[in-house]
């Protein structure tokens, strides 16, 4: 690698990196609504050294930029044992806040910095082997699950869709390949609303979230370009996505990669709530459950969608809703994000166990969320705990059961 190309991404973010004032709330923070709590889920389940949380990470990057540290395989493993959940960003005194006016401050976008160095590590040959395998699967079959591309819409059982429509339902990879019942529920609810929609298969490819989170940027750009062109070909004005990772990728990453999008991107909860408010969708069948809601990081802290899922739950007759102590921007990560579930599965489970136990303290039996990655990891954690009677379900499960005239 040419010397000038080394660490080119973090060099562009040097002002952010060097502006850390070392307060340390990114490790242990305090919020009035929560009290004192461990901010970084990965740090809580790490050996406990500084580089496992944000302040230490920024110190490491300072050393890299100053030439006193060099990347290594060991450093890469530390760096990738991070969920990129953004909890550090939500509490940092130098992340953007309209109530803070520090004239000398260079506000830190923590997740952007973490992912930039991941890409620099991959360029330097320090990618994580398991992540490299997932990206190879994306290159070969347009999904990270080593599944055949032509099986992406197998769950549709031969149903056909129009070539063009006002709205595109972008399925993503996890739901059609691992949780097809959720893809079916999306279609059921869209059908009930009377929306003019279509899907992209056989031309839908992975959104690129896995590649982006694990430092493989080139293929992510190829995926973004392909998917946007295919949506334009369908003549769609709207794209509705349920997977929170896909939504974050379309809504946040795509504009940074290829520029402004020629269509509006909605998360399914936003889209369905709009239809409810227009009188086009009704949830009338009672479901008698006491539930709590887990905020997915990609949907909440990364995309600022907190209220739509909660408002939809309130639309379902019989639902008793209770908030977890840590909710919205303070919510604990499920443990799966940032490539942790695939490369460090035990850490992912341990983090999710903390969330399951937090829900049990409320006396609820059901955790509802809106992300397939959260679903899978929280379920794995619930199953791993002795005498756990917590069920983990997607909000689509409830909406599909309740939808009616």
What can you tell me about this protein's structure?
With 405 residues, this protein is of the alpha/beta class. It has 3 domains: 3-127, no CATH class; 141-277, Rossmann fold (3-Layer(aba) Sandwich), CATH 3.40.50; 289-402, Rossmann fold, CATH 3.40.50. The chain has 19 helices and 10 strands. It has helices spanning 8-12, 14-18, 41-44, 54-66, 73-80, 87-91, 110-123, 129-141, 174-178, 180-193, 209-213, 217-233, 244-258, 268-277, 307-315, 340-343, 345-360, 372-384, 395-402; strands at residues 28-31, 35-38, 167-170, 197-198, 238-241, 264-267, 289-293, 319-321, 366-369, 391-394. The strands form 3 sheets. The protein has a 4-stranded parallel sheet, with helices on both faces. The chain has a 4-stranded parallel sheet with strand order 8-7-9-10, sandwiched between helices. Strands 1-2 form a two-stranded antiparallel sheet. The longest helix has 17 residues, at 217-233.
Secondary structure elements and pairings:
Blueprint: H1 8-12, H2 14-18, E1 28-31, E2 35-38, H3 41-44, H4 54-66, H5 73-80, H6 87-91, H7 110-123, H8 129-141, E3 167-170, H9 174-178, H10 180-193, E4 197-198, H11 209-213, H12 217-233, E5 238-241, H13 244-258, E6 264-267, H14 268-277, E7 289-293, H15 307-315, E8 319-321, H16 340-343, H17 345-360, E9 366-369, H18 372-384, E10 391-394, H19 395-402
Helix pairs in contact: 10-19, 14-15, 17-18
């Amino acid at each position: 690698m040419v010397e000038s190309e080394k660490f080119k991404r973090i060099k562009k973010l040097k002002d952010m990196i060097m502006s850390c004032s070392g307060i340390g709330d990114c490790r242990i923070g305090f919020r009035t609504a929560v009290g004192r709590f461990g901010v970084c889920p990965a740090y809580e389940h790490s050996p406990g050294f500084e580089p496992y949380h944000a302040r230490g990470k920024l110190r490491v990057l300072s050393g890299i930029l100053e030439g006193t540290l060099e990347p290594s395989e060991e450093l890469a493993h530390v760096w990738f044992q991070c969920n990129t959940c953004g909890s550090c960003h939500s509490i940092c005194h130098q992340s953007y806040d309209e109530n803070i006016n520090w004239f000398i401050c260079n506000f830190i976008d923590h997740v952007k910095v973490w992912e930039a160095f991941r890409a620099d590590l991959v360029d330097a040959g320090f990618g994580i082997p398991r992540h490299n395998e997932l990206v190879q699967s994306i290159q070969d079959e347009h999904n990270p699950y080593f599944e055949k591309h032509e099986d992406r819409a197998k769950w549709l059982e031969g149903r056909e869709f129009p070539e063009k429509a006002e709205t595109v339902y972008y399925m993503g990879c996890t739901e059609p390949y691992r949780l097809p019942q959720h893809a079916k529920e999306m279609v059921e609810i869209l059908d009930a609303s009377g929306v003019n929609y279509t899907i992209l298969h056989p031309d839908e490819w992975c959104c690129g979230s896995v590649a982006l989170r694990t430092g493989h940027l080139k293929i992510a750009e190829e995926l973004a370009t392909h998917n946007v062109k295919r949506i334009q070909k369908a003549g769609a004005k709207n794209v509705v996505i349920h997977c929170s990772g896909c939504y974050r990728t379309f809504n946040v990453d795509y504009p940074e990669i290829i520029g402004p999008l020629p269509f509006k991107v909605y998360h399914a909860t936003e889209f369905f709530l709009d239809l409810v408010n227009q009188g086009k969708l009704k949830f009338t069948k009672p479901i008698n459950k006491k539930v709590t809601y887990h905020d997915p990081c990609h949907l909440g802290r990364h995309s600022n969608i907190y209220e739509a899922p909660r408002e939809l739950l309130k639309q379902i007759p019989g639902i008793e809703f209770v908030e977890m102590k840590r909710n919205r921007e303070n919510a604990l990560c499920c443990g799966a994000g940032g490539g942790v579930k695939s490369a460090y599965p035990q850490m992912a489970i341990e983090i999710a166990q903390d969330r399951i136990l937090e829900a049990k303290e409320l006396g609820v039996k059901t955790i509802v969320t809106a992300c397939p990655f959260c679903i899978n990891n929280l379920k794995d954690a619930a199953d791993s705990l002795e005498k756990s009677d917590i069920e983990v379900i997607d909000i689509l499960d409830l909406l599909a059961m309740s939808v009616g005239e």
